Amino acid sequence: MHAPIVRKRFGQHFLHDKQIIQRIVEMIAPQPGQHLVEIGPGQGALTVPILRKIGQLDVIEIDRDLIPPLKSRCADKGNLIVHEADALEFDFAELAEPDQPLRVIGNLPYNISTPLIFHLLHYAHDILDMHFMLQKEVVERLAAQPGTEDYGRLSIMMQYHCQVIPLFNVSPAAFYPPPQVESSVVRLIPYQEISHFARDYKHFSLLVREAFSHRRKTLRNSLKELIDDAEWKTIAVDSHLRPEQLRVEDYVNISNQLNPK
Ligand code: SAM
């Protein structure tokens, strides 16, 4: 295959390491009859082997120039359903059926991976699992535990919805062109039932955002706009802690105590 034109603005780093590709496909373990959706198929490094295994695949690609060669590469491999679209605006609920949750996969464009993950969280109940190649640092943040430097808004919002399972690291040499950073593959499994349910999700989300907008401040200071002194007295969390010291359920509890209905 010819070296492709690479569009930096679309975060294009194409996988070419066959062993890594095989390992990712093994981790995904696609089965015929499952509904898989790939974000950013590019030249088809993952698309082709997956299509071969299960015979049908939805893909979402923003770069229209990549679509005709992808279609011809996949023509004899199965039913490829191409959505020429921006995954950040894509309505994943449109693809999901009640008895057929989606399995979402992708070697994601790193420049939009965080907003894309937040976008996908809206559809958590339509998704069975997700397998993504991400910047290693992003996977570390997704999986981070309270009290660590990596722990923040991304960790909390992801862990509220999903079990986070880091799988393995991938070196820049596996891609063309090689990215500047190490990568990691992660499995995200949305909980069927959320154990600590936020009664007002918007409020919970705002609370976490505000808390981490001033990471070095105590909760009492950073949440001044949302929680006054009288309210702190009714909340069973120490307001002198810093945001990274609270668990996901602590944020849920604070939000629920302020939204008692
Ligand atoms: N899956 C291929 C692989 O592993 O070689 C390509 C991965 S490359 C890191 C990211 C892919 O996502 C590219 O094909 C790029 O054009 C596409 N992409 C970038 N931004 C996108 C967006 N907002 N929506 C959908 N696809 C996007």
How do the strands and helices of this protein lay out in sequence?
Elements: E1 14-15, H1 18-28, E2 35-39, H2 47-54, E3 56-61, H3 67-74, E4 79-84, E5 102-107, H4 113-121, E6 127-135, H5 136-143, H6 153-161, E7 162-170, E8 175-176, E9 183-190, H7 201-213, H8 219-222, H9 229-234, H10 248-258
Parallel strand pairs: 2-3, 2-5, 3-4, 5-6
Antiparallel strand pairs: 1-8, 6-9, 7-9
Bound molecules: S-adenosylmethionine (SAM).
S-adenosylmethionine (SAM) is lined by residues 10-15, 39-43, 45-46, 60-63, 66, 86-88, 107, 109, 112.
Give a structural overview:
With 261 residues, the protein is α/β, with parallel strands linked by helices. The chain has 2 domains: 8-190, Vaccinia Virus protein VP39 (Rossmann fold), CATH 3.40.50; 201-258, Orthogonal Bundle (Helicase, Ruva Protein, domain 3). The protein has 10 helices and 9 strands. The protein has helices at 18-28, 47-54, 67-74, 113-121, 136-143, 153-161, 201-213, 219-222, 229-234, 248-258, and strands at residues 14-15, 35-39, 56-61, 79-84, 102-107, 127-135, 162-170, 175-176, 183-190. The longest helix is centred in the C-terminal third of the chain and has 13 residues, at 201-213. It binds S-adenosylmethionine (SAM). S-adenosylmethionine binds at residues 10-15, 39-43, 45-46, 60-63, 66, 86-88, 107, 109, 112.
